[in-house]
Design goal:
DNA-binding transcription factor activity, alpha/beta, 3 domains, 11 helices, Arc Repressor Mutant, subunit A, D-Maltodextrin-Binding Protein, domain 2, DNA binding, elongated, DNA-binding, 5-stranded mixed β-sheet, LysR_HTH_N, 43% helix
Length: 300
């Protein structure tokens, strides 16, 4: 490590990102704003480039800053634990409570958890899945630290901030050999039992819009569910047609257990990202989580 880098440089850098502004970070570290600005400038001079971009909405990391930030978080956490151990007092392990919609739980969470535990082995992690409405309600109540999933309707996002990661669409899947595969036309789904998203599901308005675009209403024979476990078991053994976020069934389709109908579902495409309480300061664990999620999406 460059000998010019001091602990104060890393502490200031991490706190600026955690607080979202130099002013708030200076207050948290009991420094003046010119002092923390100077410390950041020194670190950027040592590392050879800008680490943060300032804007009206606060600060955001550059690519170089994202790379350094994850390592700085891990290093400071390890140092804190080591110093606490020397004093004979074990510091409490960081805790993180994440809500994940089913598509994200299947597509992203295994990799996110593996990376988190690699960077913070003592992290106490709790993961809940469920419907969008239930998870965002728990987030607003403080029972969850973050929710990762689809952007909901405006009324469901009150008091929350959203960081977009990627776009995802709804898939229409059936079992291999399903009769509809002979003529894969969505206007024929009414001939079969349909697994359809519930009224409170984030994808429900999008699927309704898709159906309306085809001149169709709600399927007359339907089971409303977003349960991946139920849908997966039921669709594989019945002549049902299942509307579900593509991420939920991506592995099933790739491994041939389910077949995606070759139909255009572009109208259902919507943003997936991380939801947090607007304006709430982030803990070390929450900051580390955001860092891991963003890095994984950038590397995909």
């Amino acid at each position: 490590m460059d000998r010019r880098i001091r602990l104060r440089h890393l502490q200031a850098f991490v706190e600026i990102v955690r607080q979202g502004s130099l002013k708030a970070a200076a207050e948290a570290l009991f420094l003046t704003q010119p002092a923390i600005s100077r410390t950041l400038a020194e670190l950027e001079e040592i590392t050879g480039g800008p680490l943060l971009i300032r804007g009206r909405g606060g600060v955001r990391l550059t690519a170089q800053g994202q790379f350094l930030h994850g390592h700085a978080l891990s290093g400071l956490a390890a140092l804190s634990a080591g110093l606490a151990g020397l004093g004979g007092v074990a510091s409490p392990p960081p805790q993180l409570r994440i809500g994940a919609l089913p598509s994200v739980a299947a597509r992203l969470m295994p990799g996110i958890v593996a990376r988190l535990l690699q960077m913070a082995p003592d992290l106490q992690l709790a993961i809940s899945d469920g419907a969008h409405e239930a998870l965002t309600k728990a987030l607003r109540a403080g029972d969850l630290d973050a929710v990762i999933g689809r952007l909901g309707e405006p009324h469901s996002m009150q008091g929350l901030s959203f960081t977009q990661l990627y776009l995802e669409e709804v898939a229409v899947v059936v079992r291999p050999g399903h009769p509809i595969l002979m003529d894969p036309d969505l206007r024929r789904v009414g001939n079969y039992l349909v697994l359809y998203p519930t009224e409170v599901a984030a994808i429900r308005p999008l699927v309704d819009r898709l159906m309306l675009g085809l001149g169709l209403g709600l399927p007359p024979r339907r089971i409303e569910t977003v349960s991946g476990a139920f849908g997966r078991a039921f669709a594989r053994d019945a002549d049902a047609v299942w509307f579900i976020s593509a991420g939920v069934v991506a592995r099933d389709v790739a491994e041939g257990r389910l077949v995606r109908l070759p139909v255009d579902t572009g109208l259902t495409r919507g943003p997936v990202g991380v939801m947090t309480r607007a304006g709430a300061p982030r803990s070390f664990a929450e900051t580390l989580f955001m860092e891991v999620v963003v890095q994984m999406e950038l590397s995909d």
